[in-house]
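Researcher: Quick test of sequence recovery. C-alpha cells follow.
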C-alpha cells in the first residue's frame, strides 16, 4: 500500500479529474479498501478540501467549491499552460498585473525543474506600441461585475463617464459614446440599461458588447468608463449578434466595416475612389481594408475608407504613384487642402 501522503495526492488528483466518483471505483483505482478511501476523504476535509459524500446505492464522492482556495494539483500540461497564461496576464490591462506577476512567481517556484525549463524557454514579453499616453486601466471589480451579468444574462445598469481625451491610435470610438456627457451645467445622464452579451478585449482595451434597451440597437462600451449599479435588472433571452460571432462583430465595428455590406469599406464615414498608376498586386499587398480592382498591367482602381478625409488622403498618398480622383468631391477637396499644407511645409521658414 502506498504511503498515506502519496495516496492522498493520488486521491486528490482523481477527484479533480471528474465531477463524481463512486466509492468502489476510487478504491479500485487506488488499490485500497472502501474503508481506507473514507479515511482518506476525512483527511482531505481536515486539510480544507470540501469533499462531499453522495448518497445512493453505490455512494461516492465529489470535490465541491469551498469558502477558501485550497492547494491545487496540476498535471504537467496544466502547469505550463497556467504559467504562460500568467505571463500574458501581466500585460492585460485588467488591473490584475501585479497579482498575476506574484502568482507567476509562486507557480514557478514550485514547478519541477523539467517544467521550469519549459516555462523559462517561453518567456513572453508584451510590448505595446508607443502611445501619447498609457492605455486605460480597468478595475478588476468592474470586470467581475460585468462578467457576472453576462453569465447570469441579467440586465446591467451602469453610469457611463464622458470622454476626457481622444483615444490614442486608430481605434474607432465605441458605439453609444457621447462627447461631453454630464459636463459642467448639464445634469448627468440617467444610467444606461443594456442586455450584456460579451466582455471582449481589443488593442489592450476592454469592451462590453450589449443591446442598448433605450436606443434599441447594439452598442460597444469601454469598460474603463463603466461604473456598474446594483442590483442588476431582470433576466433576458440573448439576442442573435449581427455577423454571426462576437469576433466578426467587433472586427466589423472597429475596422469600420459592416456585416450587412461585407465589402470592407461600407461602414467608414469617409469613403473614396481613386485610380493609381500601380499594378493591382502591389497595391493589394499594402491594403488591409479596401477594394482593389485591376484595370491594366500598371493601373488599378482603389476604394478605401477612413474616419476623416485628410486621413483618407494620407492613406492613399503613401503609394508612390500618380493619382486620379474618381470621387467624391470631399476627397478632391481634401487632396487640395493637404497639397497646400504640404507645400507650405516644404517652404523654408522666414526668420527675421
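Model:
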Amino acid at each position: 500500500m502506498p504511503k498515506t501522503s502519496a495516496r492522498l495526492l493520488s486521491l486528490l488528483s482523481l477527484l479533480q479529474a471528474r465531477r463524481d466518483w463512486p466509492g468502489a471505483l476510487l478504491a479500485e483505482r487506488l488499490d485500497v479498501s472502501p474503508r481506507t478511501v473514507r479515511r482518506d476523504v476525512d483527511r482531505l476535509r481536515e486539510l480544507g478540501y470540501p469533499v462531499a459524500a453522495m448518497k445512493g446505492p453505490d455512494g461516492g464522492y465529489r470535490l465541491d467549491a469551498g469558502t477558501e482556495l485550497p492547494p491545487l494539483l496540476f498535471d504537467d500540461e496544466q502547469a505550463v499552460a497556467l504559467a504562460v497564461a500568467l505571463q500574458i496576464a501581466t500585460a492585460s490591462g485588467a488591473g490584475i498585473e501585479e497579482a498575476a506577476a506574484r502568482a507567476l512567481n509562486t507557480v514557478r517556484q514550485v514547478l519541477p525543474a523539467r517544467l521550469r525549463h519549459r516555462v523559462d524557454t517561453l518567456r513572453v514579453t508584451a510590448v505595446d506600441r508607443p502611445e501619447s499616453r498609457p492605455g486605460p486601466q480597468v478595475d478588476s471589480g468592474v470586470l467581475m461585475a460585468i462578467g457576472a451579468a453576462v453569465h447570469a444574462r441579467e440586465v446591467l445598469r451602469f453610469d457611463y463617464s464622458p470622454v476626457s481625451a481622444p483615444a490614442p491610435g486608430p481605434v474607432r470610438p465605441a458605439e453609444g459614446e457621447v462627447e461631453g456627457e454630464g459636463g459642467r451645467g448639464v445634469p448627468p445622464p440617467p444610467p444606461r440599461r443594456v442586455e450584456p452579451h460579451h466582455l471582449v478585449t481589443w488593442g489592450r482595451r476592454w469592451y462590453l458588447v450589449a443591446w442598448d434597451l433605450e436606443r434599441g440597437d447594439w452598442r460597444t462600451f469601454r469598460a474603463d468608463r463603466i461604473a456598474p449599479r446594483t442590483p442588476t435588472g431582470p433576466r433576458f433571452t440573448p439576442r442573435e449578434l449581427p455577423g454571426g460571432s462576437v469576433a466578426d462583430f467587433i472586427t466589423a465595428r472597429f475596422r469600420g466595416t459592416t456585416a450587412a455590406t461585407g465589402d470592407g469599406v461600407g461602414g467608414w464615414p469617409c469613403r473614396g475612389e481613386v485610380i493609381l498608376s500601380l499594378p493591382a498586386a502591389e497595391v493589394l499587398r499594402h491594403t488591409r481594408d479596401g477594394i482593389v480592382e485591376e484595370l491594366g498591367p500598371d493601373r488599378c482602381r482603389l476604394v478605401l475608407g477612413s474616419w476623416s478625409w485628410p486621413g483618407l488622403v494620407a492613406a492613399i498618398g503613401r503609394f508612390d504613384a500618380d493619382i486620379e480622383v474618381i470621387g467624391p468631391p470631399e476627397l478632391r477637396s481634401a487632396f487640395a487642402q493637404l497639397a497646400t499644407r504640404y507645400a507650405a511645409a516644404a517652404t523654408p521658414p522666414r526668420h527675421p
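The first helix runs from residue 4 to 17.
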